[in-house]
Target: FGD2 protein
Amino acid sequence: RDAIDRKEKRSETFKQGMETGTPALKTEELGRRAPQWVRDNLVTMCMCCKEPFNAITRRRHHCRACGYVVCARCSDYKAELQYDGNRLHRVCQECYTFLTGHVAPEEREGKHKGILEKGAAEVSGRSLLCSSLQLLDKTGKGGTRGWFVIPQDDPLVLYVYAAPQDVRAHTSIPLLGYQVRDLPQGDSRHLFQLAQSRQVYTFMADTEELKRRWMRAMARSAAGIAGPEEGEDADS
Model:
């Protein structure tokens, strides 16, 4: 009931606050009818947590149940949607609660939000791997450098900081289930990708050796293997 009330209140707030041209689904239609997505260019922040979007480190996603534009952290849930043959789709936290009847796991929610508030230096000091990488945009020609960390105490998630001394992470990418792809080296660029369904992240490392280390670390996390490789110390 609380989730329903919050969703209805949030719908009303955004309808009053901006002209989206997108009729909101009634609560009882969630999961039963395909939503009309709120257009990306109409929002500058996550419609759940209100954190501002960043073209590289905080990407826009759409909840497949309500159509709202949300960040990766707030859409890190899956629920069966009746309008698509009860297939599992990415949904926001509130739709997850409404559609499944389950409260979002407090342990996972607390862990992700808590570590985002911790400084990069602290997390890097007890990481499986950390270094500077460049996350490329969709064209593959531009992008932004950041500080990337796989923490020892949350080894299935990649955390993204703008700089090694930042006090708060920009975002996180759950690695479980992703495929790690090698890309041909061209123009001295050391490229690799994380891919899952239609979500693809393309990274560029400074050296081929660093690229290989990240590919191994990400592949282990994607397979659900926690901890450093045998005979290899965690990197700081």
DSSP finds five helices and eleven strands in the chain. The domain at 120-223 is CATH 2.30.29.30 (PH-domain like). Helices lie at 2-17, 93-100, 106-116, 120-124, 208-222.
